[in-house]
Amino acid sequence: MSVFTRVTEAELTAWLSDYSLGQLISLQGIASGIENTNYFVTTSNGRFVLTLFEKLTAEELPFYLNLMSHLAQHGIPCPSPVSNRHNRFLGALNGKPASIVSRLPGKSLVQPTAANCAAVGAMLAQMHTAGQSFAIAMPNPRGAAWRAEAAQQVRPFLSDADAALLQGEITFHTQQPLAGLPQGVIHADLFRDNVLIDGTRVGGLIDFYFACNDALLYDVAITVNDWCMDTAIGVLDAERTRALLKAYHRVRAFAPEEAAAWPVALRLAALRFWISRLYDLHLPRDGELIHAHDPQQFQRILQQHIASFGDAIWLE
Q: Is the pTM of this model over 0.90?
């Protein structure tokens, strides 16, 4: 993610003295995303990722770090937090909560194939299954209350037509809750840049700092909206969408009520990222190397889902 807080090699060397990770060899900032400060770290003992948390507090972070540890122990290829000499995953560096985790193999894809989408669908279902035994719960911090509040904050920057679309969708989803669907731990941000593909397999699921408890189908919709979108024309690609859904279904079968709610989930997933991108564009934090995503992308996706509401692509 973006580099908001600078860390020097000398500062990191001092911080690493509390860990059994060997000597620092290299430190490289990662200049993408908008939430945290991330660095690639190489030591004499291996390759890691250092994260300084810009928004999340030390009280909030144990959920995410313990979740990653739990999933890694259950065979999910996700970053495994490294504990310090005090057996804690979380420390502090340059005034920010900080952790260091294993670096996973593979790289993110720009143009995924149907086979890539199937691999991601199967892995997402495995993650949802493994998360069922995680004992800590985190209500979705970007649920209905956040959507309503953030929409009000970005309203002054919108045209009347866009503001009407935004308010109409917020009202729609208050009448179409997903609370009755199967629930569990979700990643909530499984875009292409948060999946590392290693050959034909998933090498890693990364960036769990939006993870929370919510409808599992909502997590599938978030993933499909990115992995299966034909960006040239702004609609879902049928082959990739069905490949992801069928691979997921083979691992964790969709319930009948999830099939019925699928068009709603697609719209809600698009709405969430339209709002957050509007917020990041118009109400940014001070920082360095910030990369704000285009909110119009998810506005177009949302409008397409509204237009095709009665004909959403599903398993068949």
A: yes
